[in-house]
Each structure stands twice: as C-alpha cells, then as structure tokens.
C-alpha cells in the first residue's frame, strides 16, 4: 500500500544507484574492447548480453519495408501527428546567429551552427519506444544536424521493434543499428568498421548505458545521465483521485526504481488515492514492476497548505510535475524546479510523453534544479566572433596589457604591446 506521511516526516532526498564497482569495471572493459576491436567486439557483446548472433548490424531496406507492413495504420497516423506536434514545438526554440557593429569599427557576434553527426540511443529488447525516436531526432533535425544514427537493442528474434523503425522512417532517419548496451555507446564514440563516430550521444538507457555515457563524456558530448523516471502530483480537494492514481501508476510501471509521489493539502484525497492505486494496480499488465515502485519509492505527503506543498515540490525538483489544484495557473510563478509541468486535470503526463509537442527527455533525480529538457540548443554549438578595430586596440590596449600582467602572462601582454608599438610609430 502507498504510504501516507506528514510533511514534517517526508524526506525529499532520494538515493539512486549510480553503478557498482563491478558494473563500472564491466563498462570500462566493454568500452576498451570496442575501441580496440571495432565490429568484432560489438558483435561479441551483443551475442553475450542479448543472446543474439547478428549477420549485420545495420537495419536493411527490407527490414524497414517489413516494419511498415506490420505496423497498424492507426499507430502510423499517430506517429505522424505526434511528429508534427513535436516539430512545431521545437521549431520555436531555434535561435539565429547575430552580429553587432560599434561606431569604432569593432564587430562582435555569435555564430550558431548545428552539430554534424549525433547518435540516438533508443531503449529496446523487452520494451520499445518509438516516442524516443521522435523526441531525440526531431530537435536534432530542427537544429540542422546532417547525420543521425540510431542504435537500439534487438529483440529476441534479432529484429528491431516495428514501431521504432516506422518512427525513424517517418522522420527520414535510415541509419539504424541493431546494437544496444555499453557496446553501442562505445561504437558511437570511437567508431567501428560499420558505425561512424558521432559528436554527441543522446537518449536514455539502463545502468550500463548510463555509466558508458558518463565515461565517454569529453570524447563526445552527452545529453544527460538519466536516472529512473519520476512523477510528483501536487493536488488539493478538487482533484479526481482516479486521475491522480492513474498518473502515478503511469510512471511506476516504467521501472521498479521509478518514483511516484502525491503532495496534497487534502487528507481525504490522500486516502482515496491510496485506495485507487491499489484497485488500479491489481489489473495492470506490468503490476509486478509498478507494485515494487510504489512500495519502495512511492509516497503520499500531506501538507498544511499549497505553499508548503510547493516547497516540497521545489526541493524534489521532479522530472514530471502535475499540478491538479483548483487554479493551477495561479501557482506557476512559485514553481522553481521541475523538468516538465502539466497543468490541470486533462494534462496527464502521457500527453507530454507522446503527443503534445514538448520533449519527454527530462532531467531526473533532482537535476531539474540546474538542467533542462532536451531541446534544439542541445544540438547546436556557438562560436564567438571578434573583429577588433585599430581604434579600439589603441584606446584599450593598455588595459588589456595590465590585466595580462596581473595574471603573470607576459606573452599575452606582449602580443598587444607589439601592435601598439607598431601602430604608434
């Protein structure tokens, strides 16, 4: 049963496993092997961990066609419409290069350019996430990334889930590899005979994927080291307990480590949600996973006021925050930390996961205190432009020299002084 606790006894600290020494050692071994051996190591680890012997890693045109034949037309239509919504939302994030010229003739500016090649990790195997393809690939495409490579673990039959392939096909992403785990991260980082290296790796995965991404950061960029999914619902007596319970379970079914928390000013709602969770849990196909999540990482926190509830929320800094208050808009300004904010009874978290348009790749484990959802900026790089005029160099050169000498960098100072001496002859 979901436990009910008073605000004074509720801890907002959550310790999430970041990998054992054994797991880290295994990841380092895989990374080194793929770096040294290329395809041979990737295929060997795929056989070892996925129990699949691959003839080739890259998805063929025939496999794409087969997926298109297998997928239900309703699902394909939903993928297309979701993709349109996601593209429209992310297109509004795009920024432009800029330049400014001063009266002295100095020009300053910023060039904004896309990354050339990125790798998308899409979870697979026992579960498949076409939505992850959409959420990771579309902002990259909006940014102007030319090359997108998708890696995803094969199923027991050695094939990629049709939904994943159809999502990639609809976006025009044809470079898909049947590879998962740390070996996929290694292949994207170092490159192999089949897989070209990338500039950045995005997308969630299991603990081995997360550890591998952490290890290769610096050789390539990464989006984040994602932890288990989280949801917090902030509610008062106006909330429907069936809605609240269903939304809590929508995250609990992801992973036994997922966290589902209700913060409420109403004890009657707390008790009603507790009962609803039990009833809805009993008929969930993924009951065992959701039950473990609710038991170990679920809670109902009863607070004295909405203000106290907001304080709890801001300390939790949740990945997903649903605000089911009588007037949710009135409290937006007081929400400081959350990955995605869902307002009102009809903004169920899955609306954001799949269809509305905002990205579902979100900061977890309290990192919403300083991190943002995946967005177009994640696929852009910025270069500063400086075209300094003779007038400004003569006017400010002595100041630059003073700063350089203050830091003990005489060669810096002399690089300016030689110009001043030459121009003042």
Automatic annotation (TrEMBL):
Q: Where does Zn(2+) bind?
A: 251, 254, 353, 412
* Enzyme Commission no: 1.1.1.23
Say which family it is in: Belongs to the histidinol dehydrogenase family.
Official protein name in the record: Histidinol dehydrogenase
Q: How is the cofactor bound?
A: Binds 1 zinc ion per subunit.
Swiss-Prot/TrEMBL cofactor(s): Zn(2+)
Which pathway does it take part in?
Amino-acid biosynthesis; L-histidine biosynthesis; L-histidine from 5-phospho-alpha-D-ribose 1-diphosphate: step 9/9
Amino-acid positions noted as binding substrate in the UniProt annotation, renumbered to this chain: 229, 251, 254, 320, 353, 407, 412
Keywords from UniProt, A to Z, are: Amino-acid biosynthesis, Histidine biosynthesis, Metal-binding, NAD, Oxidoreductase, Zinc
Name of the gene: hisD
Please name the NCBIfam families in this protein's record: hisD
Source organism per UniProt: Aneurinibacillus danicus
Q: Which residues form the active site?
A: 319-320
Q: Which Pfam families match?
A: Histidinol_dh
* Domain of life the protein comes from: Bacteria
- Which GO CC terms are listed, alphabetically? cytosol
Gene Ontology molecular function: histidinol dehydrogenase activity; NAD binding; zinc ion binding
Reaction catalysis annotation = L-histidinol + 2 NAD(+) + H2O = L-histidine + 2 NADH + 3 H(+)
Q: Name one GO biological process term.
A: L-histidine biosynthetic process
Q: Which residues bind NAD(+)?
A: 121, 183, 206
Protein task:
Catalyzes the sequential NAD-dependent oxidations of L-histidinol to L-histidinaldehyde and then to L-histidine.
Q: Which Gene3D superfamilies match?
A: 1.20.5.1300, Nitrogenase molybdenum iron protein domain
